[in-house]
Amino acid sequence: TGRNIQFELYPFSFREFLRWHGQENLIDEAHRERENIPDFLHKSLVKKFGEYCLCGGLPEAVKCYPDIKYRDILQNIFLSQKEDFQRKEKEEPYLFVDALRGISNHVGYPSKYSQISSNYYQAKKIVEKLKQWHLLYEINIQGHSTTSFISQKRYVYDLGILKLLRNTPTPEIDLLETLNDVLRQPLGGIIENAVLLNYLSEANVPSELSAWKKNAKQPIEVDFVFDIKNKKLPVEVKASLKVKSHLAKNVINYLNIYQQKLGLVVTLAKFQKLDMDNFEIYNVPAYFSLNHVFT
């Protein structure tokens, strides 16, 4: 046989979502203006990013959006995947649903097998198979020591599927209009998932990604450590609409320990360099591609 090249296709990134709807110029203009993004443009992009978090990046759903039928398309895609998975893997059908729903409900938090099934063996087995099918992404939370492993975080392969599966008794959360901190809390994990998917889809990345925590006992951690421009960059993700210096405290901890200068905080606020002595920390809006922030 000839040479075989394998590559992974991801759902549409946010930029591709905009491109399909003929609005890629919005993100291009924001990158050009970067430190002086007009209010109207920023609000437009946050609104569009909220739509992206609802619809996700599966092409058939994106093509249909904003028609409400996009939800039916997502449901049909999910059921078709469930049938394919069950036919080929011979697993109990409820495990496929329970695993992805358990991950969706706890996205952004350390993941536990008990969130999937009371049977540890079954939960571990289904997670490994979902990883092989590229239906979830697993990131190790590493400790200060290079050999220390603390726990894991798991993310769903598409934002629309995540939203479809997530159990919530509350009305839809609006990224711009919902201001109550308690109501906004679930947004953090969803935005984390979005940041990861956009990073993966727009970069030639190594197979190993990580999060970081100082140790198992202290709540000092950063959501991601990404390789960007050949540098290890600590990235903290928040759903805040305002730039707040305290959001960077865990990034600063990481930079102090490893004697680095550059870190990122991702929020729903405008691009801004934070006023931090001895550090170069940027607040980056979630709708930006982290791979192109410094290009």
Overview of the structural elements:
The chain has an eight-stranded mixed β-sheet, with helices on both faces. It has helices at residues 14-20, 24-33, 39-55, 59-64, 70-89, 93-105, 120-132, 159-165, 181-184, 187-201, 249-258; strands at 136-142, 149-156, 210-213, 221-228, 231-237, 262-267, 272-273, 280-285. It has eleven helices and eight strands. The chain is of the alpha/beta class.
Order of helices and strands: HHHHHHHEEHHHEEEHEEE
User: What is the global morphology?
Assistant: globular
Which consecutive residue ranges, at least 5 long each, have pLDDT under 50? none
Helix content: 40-55%
Can I get a quick summary?
By secondary structure, the protein is an alpha/beta fold. The chain is built from eleven helices and eight strands.
Keyword list:
295 residues, alpha/beta, eight-stranded mixed sheet, 11 helices, 8 strands
Write the layout of secondary structure elements.
Layout: H1 14-20, H2 24-33, H3 39-55, H4 59-64, H5 70-89, H6 93-105, H7 120-132, E1 136-142, E2 149-156, H8 159-165, H9 181-184, H10 187-201, E3 210-213, E4 221-228, E5 231-237, H11 249-258, E6 262-267, E7 272-273, E8 280-285
Parallel strand pairs: 1-3, 5-6, 6-8
Antiparallel strand pairs: 1-2, 3-4, 4-5, 7-8
